[in-house]
Amino acid sequence: xxxxxxxxxxxxxxxxxxxxxxxxxxxxxxxxxxxxxxxxxxxxxxxxxxxxxxxxxxxxxxxxxxxxxxxxxxxxxxxxxxxxxxxxxxxxxxxxxxxxxxxxxxxxxxxxxxxxxxxxxxxxxxxxxxxxxxxxxxxxxxxxxxxxxxxxxxxxxxxxxxxxxxxxxxxxxxxxxxxxxxxxxxxxxxxxxxxxxxxxxxxxxxxxxxxxxxxxxxxxxxxxxxxxxxxxxxxxxxxxxxxxxxxxxxxxxxxxxxxxxxxxxxxxxxxxxxxxxxxxxxxxxxxxxxxxxxxxxxxxxxxxxxxxxxxxxxxxxxxxxxxxxxxxxxxxxxxxxxxxxxxxxxxxxxxxxxxxxxxxxxxxxxxxxxxxxxxxxxxxxxxxxxxxxxxxxxxxxxxxxxxxxxxxxxxxxxxxxxxxxxxxxxxxxxxxxxxxxxxxxxxxxxxxxxxxxxxxxxxxxxxxx
Length: 465
Hints:
The protein is mostly beta strands. It contains no helices and 40 strands. The model is unreliable at about 1-35 (pLDDT under 50).
């Protein structure tokens, strides 16, 4: 008797071969009188995407371990490499959310490959077929499939913790792509969005689309639209172009002050998971500010030559508190939390000198006369920062003259080592984004060798252990 988990009922309006529904693992609910002899083993289907030599690059992978990851890890399989399909049996937990993690080892037991699924609603392993993408650690690998549309400096968001939505950017188009990280496939061409999103956010199955004319809710399960009732005092024109900050399933903040064009603004909108909107206002209007969530609170830095240099949202997310840093006019920096008390910034241009700033840190426990501490150079535009493991960041930026996208690992400890990590497809005008399974992906842009040809592949970074 088939039993379908709750996530299966949350269907996307996919057009084409993916179809509607079937968004989660399908298992069998064992009823009294059922025999194990009638059950079929679940399997993990391993793919290396568009990297056919992933198994054979020296040092070659010789074995693979698969773990079920919840609050703890449970080993479910150990097999020889290379491998395309791994049996996980017919048992497994019921009605839990978990992911699968695969690790490839060389002959000496060193980790040389990694891969993980998104979070899955599991109702047993029987008959489950779980795609899992593995790549070489310490670099990028191209996932299976190509995006449909060209994207230059696009925006991305995550739906249902599983689907990567890509739209907007230099093209200012209503066309959008979906990359399905449950199946590791690019979805076929979708119906255009009802408006070109200059900013967007996700609340459950609802996609909030914002432009200068106002806001529209798009129900991704039915494709029905509805108008957005803005909070009192909100003018959407003060918000558009702002970046969306926040993890899937948490409140998201559209931060108008992060936009790098138009006029400075102090407007922030918090989008709760129940699709309610709340207007917040910074004490200082900003243009090109950096923003990130630190300890569950929104931190906003820079973008103004007066006022405080940084502000953090209150614990209840309804207001902002000024931090004792001097005004910082730099525009377009990247910001990430290195740990609970330290933030790291990179890039950003000084509007007076047009110089690009390097890496610098902020002590968030500082109580008075605080300042950012410069620690290393980083002369790239459109910077993005990600914490990929303890003590190491991934920094992605764009070379000012050529527009080429570069990626580097950056050691936050002693030495501050900065090492370039080459993309599989050298490209210009790409976006770096934290994907649904916690890996950084790079997507969009043009192939550097021919900047009239878009780069359709999605590359994922696999950190070294």
